[in-house]
Amino acid sequence: MENKFCFITCVNDKELYKESLLYIKQLSIPDGFSIECLAVGNAHAMTAGYNEAMKKSDAVYKIYLHQDVYILNKRFLFDLLEIFTGDKSVGMIGMAGSAYIPDHGVWWESGKTLGCAYNSLTRITKLTSYEEEHISANREVCLIDGLLIATQYDLPWREDLFDGWHFYDVSQCCEFLRKKYKIIVPNQYNSDGIANPWCLHYIEKAVSTANYDNYRNIFFKEYQDLFNDNGFAVTVPI
Questions:
Q1: Closest CA to 70 of 23, 111, 110
Q2: Which of 7, 86, 138, 150 has the fewest CB neighbours in a 10 Å radius?
Q3: Which tens digit of pLDDT belongs to each residue from 146-192?
Q4: Comparing C-alpha atoms, which of 94, 187, 180 is closest to residue 143?
Q5: How many CB atoms lie within 10 A of CB 13?
Q6: Domain spans of the chain?
Q7: For the chain, what is the radius of gyration of the CA atoms?
Q8: Is 92 within 8 Å of 146 (Cβ atoms)?
């Protein structure tokens, strides 16, 4: 349905998810639109859980978010809609990302990062800004972080390759890039360069790094077509 938003979350902590839902329920909803929330429990991988929920929902606009992400921007749905309807070639929107794919595969160490978020680790909330130079405009990127990913097209998540909790997000970005869709990090700064993040990521404990390097090697092998002769993906102009 074109007038529907679906929030999709893999859940293994009901209390964290309950808090996330409270923020979703406070969002302003565009006239004529509805929202639904789908929680996937006991998913063996993020990709598997997201695929399961994606197939269940008929919403055009899907928001995949972690169970510990709290949306602070009450006009979040209006802002998503403006970006998506303003350019049908936009396939994905995320809160932070990189303008190119670095050879080590870690987007936040690319040197060309964009976006911002509040992060709360061990109950201490800090602003994380990924931009050295704040430009008050939406920006096109190659990769976005998986804390929140909004889409207006359905592409299968690669559970055949990523059967865990790492590289599912950058893999999906590459799937959209292969289809020639744009990926956007929205402007979250005012004209004075002051950050106003749309989300808070409440991180109670760090994610296990088990099999991280294995998934990184799978990522490089699968998406070689997106890299140039220097080992980097083509940089999006910024």
A1: 23
A2: 86
A3: 999 999 999 999 999 999 999 999 999 999 999 999 999 999 998 88
A4: 94
A5: 12
A6: 4-226
A7: 17
A8: no
Whether the Cβ atoms of residue 168 and residue 157 lie closer than 8 Å to each other: yes
- The neighbour count for residue 207, using CB atoms within 10 Å, is 10
Size of the chain in residues = 238
pLDDT digits (tens, 9 = 90+) for 10-29: 999 999 999 999 999 999 99
* pTM (two decimals): 0.94
Rounded to the nearest 5°, which phi and psi values hold at 114?
A: -140, 155
Q: Looking at the DSSP assignment, which residues form a beta bridge with residue 31?
A: none
Give pLDDT, residue 233: 61
> What's the one-letter identity of residue 57?
S
> Cα angle vertex 77, ends 75, 81, to 5°?
120
φ/ψ region of 172 (left if φ > 0, alpha if ψ in -120 to 50, else beta) reads: alpha
What are the tokens at 19? 């808090």
Instruction: With H, G, I as helix, E, B as strand and everything else as coil, classify residue 8.
Output: strand
With beta carbons less than 8 A apart as the criterion, state whether 75 and 186 touch: no
Q: What is the mean pLDDT of each run of 10 residues along the chain (238 residues)?
A: 95 96 98 98 96 98 98 98 97 95 81 91 83 84 96 98 95 95 95 92 75 91 77 54
Half-sphere exposure of 185 (CA within 13 A, CB side): 34
The encoded tokens of residue 195 equal: 């950050």
Strand, helix or coil at 144? strand
